[in-house]
Design a protein that fits this description.
Length: 300
């Protein structure tokens, strides 16, 4: 029983970590909590279904082929990446010099707009996610890890490692870190700060898109409201690990997933959201900088 809950928690935590990275990267660059980020994750899930329907209706790929899954993920990443950049340009860039409350209100407005847009475009009812080719699993003493869980955890680890390499080993990553430390100085040494901010939104949105597709595969159902709860929990994960810290977002996501799974398994599944948000309150009270809360100059 314990092993099964740990597997479930790691799977859920991997998804939270991918979404939390978008929150923490944006905050690290422009100190904005992008509350519309959860809706980007939701759009990724819907884009996966739309792509699946397009490919199978036109008989371009088999419903159970790896190519179908790959195209679903890629199309969701491209679509959500474009949405992320568009939201940054239209809703946040004009408010760059405004009081800090203005972009926050704008983020909430974008979140509500995207929720209602998808509800009107796709309907308020749950959408069934297509069953894909990932079947089977591994039986373990006291539990079982399914193939889809292995896929989710492996994909998340690969993406997180790739992000760490991007941030610490590439020129664009160095520019992101410089912008996070001092935007004005970064601009003076030739870094296009506006471009770096757009790239940050692009990367965060593509990671959320992958999480959306994988969650759709895992649970089999999605709706226009899934981004709200997942977004708040991912924000909790980012705060738990240390908002602005990429390793902190990863750690916070995994820990939150484990806490939620263990509490649901041993206490009550009906109160799993309560446990998640109780963690947020406790962290804000006793350690507002998070577990890996770094100096403000080391946020990314």
């Amino acid at each position: 029983m314990l092993l099964q809950q740990l597997v479930n928690g790691l799977t859920l935590g991997s998804v939270y970590a991918l979404i939390a990275l978008g929150y923490t990267m944006v905050y690290g660059i422009i100190e904005l909590i992008n509350f519309a980020h959860g809706e980007i994750y939701m759009l990724g899930a819907y884009m996966g279904i739309v792509t699946f329907g397009f490919l199978t209706t036109l008989h371009l790929t088999s419903a159970n082929s790896g190519a179908t899954l790959l195209l679903m993920i890629v199309s969701a990443m491209l679509f959500c990446g474009a949405c992320g950049i568009t939201i940054e340009r239209l809703a946040y860039k004009p408010l760059r010099s405004a009081p800090r409350l203005s972009p926050l209100i704008s983020a909430l407005g974008v979140s509500i707009f995207l929720q209602n847009f998808v509800m009107l475009a796709q309907g308020p009812r749950d959408k069934g996610f297509p069953p894909l080719f990932i079947h089977g699993g591994i039986d373990l003493p006291g539990g079982r890890i399914s193939a889809i869980q292995i896929f989710i955890m492996a994909t998340s680890v690969v993406l997180m490692v790739a992000l760490q390499l991007l941030v610490h080993r590439t020129r664009i990553g160095k520019a992101m870190r410089a912008t996070a430390q001092d935007k004005q100085m970064a601009s003076l040494v030739g870094i296009d700060v506006d471009r770096i901010i757009s790239v940050t939104f692009l990367i965060g949105s593509t990671l959320a898109a992958v999480a959306g597709v994988m969650v759709g595969m895992y649970y089999g159902l999605i709706n226009f409201f899934i981004g709200y709860i997942a977004g708040i929990k991912a924000f909790t994960a980012a705060v738990l690990g240390g908002i602005g810290s990429i390793p902190g977002a990863m750690l916070g996501g995994v820990l939150l997933g484990l806490i939620e799974a263990l509490c649901a398994g041993y206490i009550s599944s009906e109160y799993k959201d309560v446990f998640a948000f109780a963690i947020l309150v406790l962290v804000l009270i006793f350690r507002p900088s998070g577990l890996l809360g770094a100096d403000i100059s080391k946020r990314v």
